[in-house]
What we know:
This protein is an alpha/beta fold.
Amino acid sequence: xxxxxxxxxxxxxxxxxxxxxxxxxxxxxxxxxxxxxxxxxxxxxxxxxxxxxxxxxxxxxxxxxxxxxxxxxxxxxxxxxxxxxxxxxxxxxxxxxxxxxxxxxxxxxxxxxxxxxxxxxxxxxxxxxxxxxxxxxxxxxxxxxxxxxxxxxxxxxxxxxxxxxxxxxxxxxxxxxxxxxxxxxxxxxxxxxxxxxxxxxxxxxxxxxxxxxxxxxxxxxxxxxxxxxxxxxxxxxxxxxxxxxxxxxxxxxxxxxxxxxxxxxxxxxxxxxxxxxxxxxxxxxxxxxxxxxxxxxxxxxxxxxxxxxxxxxxxxxxxxxxxxxxxxxxxxxxxxxxxxxxxxxxxxxxxxxxxxxxxxxxxxxxxxxxxxxxxxxxxxxxxxxxxxxxxxxxxxxxxxxxxxxxxxxxxxxxxxx
Length: 417
């Protein structure tokens, strides 16, 4: 921790909030127990205290009673625990979130609160907003998506949710493109910013969600013009963390939208932010698919015998996941399929069979980081040739109402050097 604190001091930064999940769907076949959930919270409270982080945020489909159980440890370590209020997955209209907020009110502890995410105030779904882009990438017909967007922007939250529910009941299960579009866009919510006022006594932090920033430094999807005055008028004096869930502008640095977001806050809040340097263009990263193009390598045991083949794979899910959330993996090499009984993962120099992964919570497949996928293949592959390799995976996501997955097929040669 000394190195962390030294780095924070060097760059003049400070820790504000740390997030984590206590998701009931962490394990295949059973829900997380309260005792297990409380242990996860305690671990994160102690971690936050060690790095001088005053706030931790819990997400996912957790048991509301965990807030009651976590009160003593939060107070002992001086770390605040907040529930994220997010469109779709943890909106304050959901019964379990209402129950959580009621428990927070009953206990009256300054160490328990809520963390609104600005996705709750989405008054528009532009062409570049995440839900619309994902719907189209999933193969949905553009006209179908446009009709969904129009319905959302012209109906109340309740009416639009009812519409989406009826549509899902009628659309066949195999029409994955339409169903996926409804699930993505159907998560959207547009609440009156004044609803924040009644919750503000319990607000300990805010997620400044944004999907895009225009050239004049505005977020066209979210009603910041309405939300920010409510915060000011009701005395909110905490942080707003910028949370960018969009796509970088063409030929621009990914940090550029962050700069525009800060300038937007400056305009609405009248704050004085430091000037930022112009964005620096960086070369595009080419190896981005879930199966890395770096190649394959024959794997040997301690006696020098070739026992299998190593492939290198990355998850496209936006955050790291413990291996227990990997639902399925498929590998084909030169047309031959290898089932999960022949597949293992290596993370941080530890190897787990697919069956073992179902209970592994301490080793993470992190976004952007390559995991070593080991295929049980005695004798390996001819390293003098290229081979056709197909890789596919699926994850149980922490809170989304569908699995997350990706696939790629590449011609790979052996790793050299």
